[in-house]
Amino acid sequence: MAIKIEDIQSPINAEMKKFEQSFKKAMKSNVMLLDNIMGYIVKKKGKQIRPILVLLSAGLVGEIQEPTYRGAALIELLHTATLVHDDVVDDSHYRRGFFSVNALWKNKIAVLVGDYLLSRGMLLAIDNGDFDLLKIVSRAVREIIEGELLQSEKARRLDITEEIYFEIIRQKTATLIASCCGVGASSAGAPKDVVENMHLFGEKTGIAFQIKDDLFDYGDVSIGKPRGIDIKEKKMTLPLIYALSKASKSEKRKIIYIIKKQSDKPDKVKEVIDFVKRNGGIEYATEVMHRYVKEAREIVAPFPKSEYKTSLDMLITFVIERKK
Fold first, then answer.
1. Could you tell me which of 149, 179, 177 has the C-alpha nearest to residue 164?
2. 81 lies in a domain?
């Protein structure tokens, strides 16, 4: 039976309601236009995996306290800011089936909204003296930006090695999930080594999450995102990087040429997908994903049995078994 977010969230249902109140309060503004946009953003919230991770991590290592709610709001403010800015950069007009902020209010306002969300997050932490939490989250902001720029730099030449790939996804995807777990542990008053271990747990879970996302590109439309989107966007993902490392020089040149010049043609995208499957890219990426999951589970294994630990274990399973 498939795991649902509701199952994972069950030990913290009451706490999530309290978080949502805290988050809405943090989003309030006296400027009517800004308040309207904040209301629109709050209404179209997603699965809320990040605040769930903050609260479960705090519960695992200690007690969920007031700083935990602020930490979860800080993470969500940062995450929302990055999504708003991403939609401007990508010229995307939809987010989770809704119009994006830039689609409704244009780029200038969307950029300012993203900046406002970042400033609200920083002030929330500073006004309450949550400097340890702010330090963890500020590191995540820096790494997200570095990861985006590293990917842009390498994408022009399509020369991403496995080592660079892992650095990019660690910074772009895993660092925010890692900061959720680090913030949760820190907000509960955990010692430094426990905070670092929980941060590492989040990082490994985040890397597994991204590899699973990569694998969707080679599956059927029925199990998630449409096939070949990463190839069309010239993104070098783990299955493709591995397959290229096993190919002859001539075959590698051919595949790189298709990605650079012909990725808009469905038959050529299919050729790349078939190449990756033929050269063991899917099996290799799946094996690596399971390795990261195993390492993440080993980090939380020493903690006493609790409903929070059970939910975190369920969340890891959800990451690798999800259908989208």
1. 149
2. yes
Tokens of 71: 């930490």
The answer to whether 211 and 289 have CB atoms below 8 angstroms apart is yes
Domain that holds residue 59: 15-321
How many domains in the chain? 1
Regarding pTM above 0.85, the answer is: yes
Residue type, position 267, single letter: D
User: Which residues make Cβ contacts (< 8 Å) with residue 133, sequence separation at least 6?
Assistant: 67, 70, 71, 74, 125, 183, 186, 187
What token pair was written down for 83? 């999504």
Q: Exposed e or buried b for every residue in 78-115, given b needs 16+ CB within 10 A?
A: bbbbbbbbbbbeeeeeebeeeebbbbebeeebbbbbbe
Does 9 reside within a domain?
no
- The pLDDT of residue 126 is 94
How far is CA 174 from its chain centroid? 6
CA distance 134 to 132: 5
Give domain status of residue 86, yes or no.
Answer: yes
> Residue 201 and residue 174: Cα distance in Å, rounded?
10
- What is the CATH number for 116? 1.10.600.10
* CA 302 – CA 251 distance, rounded (Å): 47
Task: With beta carbons less than 8 A apart as the criterion, state whether 255 and 247 touch.
Answer: yes
> Higher-confidence residue: 193 or 102?
193
